[in-house]
């Protein structure tokens, strides 16, 4: 029969405490700092030349080495073999500074010691010489948390400190520090540590600790740390505690609530192929497995960013953070789209990320983003559009079908004459080459659905204009202040949007604008003093007329001084001419 373990007596020593990886692998020399070579070189040169300032300010994100650098600098100044850029780490001073227990190196937390009384106590003590070291060094972490009165109390001492005193400030929010403090310090900005350097450091820790971890798992942790070395080491500690001795990418994804590279590439493949059904199924699967959908959006943003970098900077660009297998899939997907389409996709994902903050409908918003990405048309650059217009090319293909609206005529007797706007608007613009919307009919139906008050304001003072696919601009005539306030109200624009959606089955973007007074006849000759054409004459020019037909747009306003002839000349010169091959002879 096995004997039970004896209980520890109160006199027995406690079991050895575990020290986390981030503390055990804290840099002890300037050469150990990862990703902060510019800071290490500057401080090393200052120590070698004897030009050490009386006050330093270290600023940067969390976990990038600010406090570690402050301790290394304190050791370098007070080491028995110093001042030296390479402290011995063997003397009592170096050992006590390394653990934050030296009597002459005072580490102060600015968040909990931010009152003016505490800074006054500091001022009264700076006059006393150090107990055993060369310098009395004050390291104030999160110095931006000091109160305004505390900063003011520190000014004089910081400007002319005793020769045996050094100040080292550390902060993550340098913009909150008064300029009077900044001007009295030498400032060093600590950079985010690259994913590649964090990955290499984690490999070193795993090897030293005798642990087992897949490279893909370490890469996920390094990327998750977002430039913070300390965060990466803390995450590694956490992951190893949850694993059974062998850390795999699958376990890391499970603990983080993120999707695997294969799942991300499959979702991207479905989106880029326009396979909405598969894309929505991937989201449903991710949600049912407990994945964090907010993290999934971040992963999609990273994927689209990777495609953007591949199309702009090339595959060897060091900032593309992806495993080799994922990078190959990213290259294949990037080759199927142009840059403008990728950029539009990033805009959609970024807007979705903003919307989900505080929302209880995260899955709905993500599904909406996937549907929009899947329906995103192949976008053309301005140069390509100009070439198509100048060479009578076909209009860009669009996926959306024609929008049909039951015709209904507004009773002309109910319309009140509206003051002329600066630029006349066409009432029935073309939306796409595949279908068109009769704006007059559509607007009449919308006004009927708005009710008596809103509908009356729209009839009296509003002129609609389509400025893009499913995009409606409402211009309110000058002098109709009450009508403008009513129409531009969020509830009214939302009601108009819902009415348009009900009538067309499509989502619409609504923009309300205040019209300007039209110039008098004397001020609007066929050509103004500069010789420029009037807006309606500009739209008769072949380039502008073809552009309006190709894009399904119309002129809403023309900026003063706009020279259409110069624009035509510039576009004609810049746009490539497409040669039309001769018909084959029969």
Summary tags:
single chain, 586 residues, alpha/beta, Rossmann fold, Helicase, Ruva Protein, domain 3, Zinc Finger, Delta Prime, domain 3, 4 domains, 5-stranded parallel β-sheet, 3-stranded mixed β-sheet, 10 strands, 9% strand, globular, DNA-directed DNA polymerase
Description of the structure:
With 586 residues, this protein is α/β, with parallel strands linked by helices. It folds into four domains: 169 residues, P-loop containing nucleotide triphosphate hydrolases (Rossmann fold), CATH 3.40.50; 62 residues, Helicase, Ruva Protein, domain 3, CATH 1.10.8; 114 residues, Zinc Finger, Delta Prime, domain 3 (Up-down Bundle); 159 residues, GMP Synthetase, Chain A, domain 3 (2-Layer Sandwich), CATH 3.30.300. Helices cover 47% and strands 9% of the residues. The protein is built from 25 helices and ten strands. The strands form three sheets. The chain has a five-stranded parallel β-sheet with strand order 2-3-4-1-5, covered by helices on one side. A three-stranded mixed β-sheet has the order 8-9-10. The N and C termini lie far apart (103 Å). About 9% of the residues have low confidence. InterPro entries: AAA+_ATPase, ClpA/B, DNA_pol3_clamp-load_cplx_C, DNA_pol_III_gamma-3, DNA_pol_III_sug/sutau_N, DNA_Rep/Repair_Clamp_Loader, HLD_clamp_pol_III_gamma_tau, P-loop_NTPase. GO terms for molecular function: ATP binding; DNA binding; DNA-directed DNA polymerase activity; metal ion binding. Its EC number is 2.7.7.7.
